[in-house]
Amino acid sequence: MKTSAELAPRIVAALIDSAVGWVVVVVPVLGAIVSVLYLLLKDGIMFQLLKTDEWKNKSIGKKIMNIEVETADGSVVDLALSAKRNIPLSIGSFIAIIPVIGWVFGPLVAIVFAVIEIVLVLTDSERRRLGDKWANTRVVQSEPVLAPDQQI
Q1: According to the model, what pLDDT value does residue 89 have?
Q2: Confidence grade of residue 22 (pLDDT, cut at 50, 70, 90)
Q3: Domain of 57?
Q4: Label partner for 150 (CA 20 to 30 A): which of 68, 125, 135, 143?
Q5: Count of domains in the chain?
Q6: What pLDDT sits at residue 123?
Q7: pTM, whole model, 2 decimals?
């Protein structure tokens, strides 16, 4: 059984992923749509695109911080499961799709949900946030991925 990820790497990974998602929001409407899609699908999209084990169950931020999403049954996080666990983190970007008023309220809502999720990680015995509970997942420390020539 893998060890639950500590809070600091999870926060840094979330900040990295948020930066990736929010950087495209500067393009009105289309940027917000791309942001919502990234924030929803971030834990599965890189593996789906690249099909390499080093991206299994990891977003860009999680890969940098050496953590990953673990499913209850040990399966790979697909796009549907990624979307399910990341709904709370993408609501702010979804609101930001609305021109002008969404550009103001979207970031505020994102901050509110981020605080709620952090509180849940701090208070839950398994360090699971709302999205993890919905998707029956948890965030754990990654094990090193060996290249095919390094495997035993």
Answers
A1: 87
A2: confident
A3: 7-141
A4: 68
A5: 1
A6: 94
A7: 0.84
Contact (CB, 8 A) for 92 and 111: yes
Joined tokens for residue 100:
């002008």
Beta bridge partners of 141: 67
Instruction: Look at residue 146 and tell me whether its pLDDT is greater than 70.
Output: no
* Cα 24–chain centre separation: 16
Residue written as token pair 């509970």 = 133
Asked whether 40 and 104 are in contact (CB, 8 A), the reply is no
Q: Note whether residue 151 is domain-resident.
A: no
User: What is the CB-side half-sphere exposure of residue 57 using CA atoms within 13 A?
Assistant: 21
In the prediction, which pLDDT does 151 show?
57
pLDDT score of 48: 95
Euclidean distance between CA atoms 4 and 50, whole angstroms: 26
Residue-wise DSSP of the chain: -PPBPPHHHHHHHHHHHHHHHHHGGGSTTHHHHHHHHHHHHTTTHHHHHH--GGGTT--HHHHHHTEEEEETT-----HHHHHHHHHHHHHHHHHTTSTTHHHHHHHHHHHHHHHHHHHHHHHSTT---HHHHHHTEEEEEPPPPPPGGG--
Residue 129 domain flag: yes
The reply to whether 1 falls in a domain is no
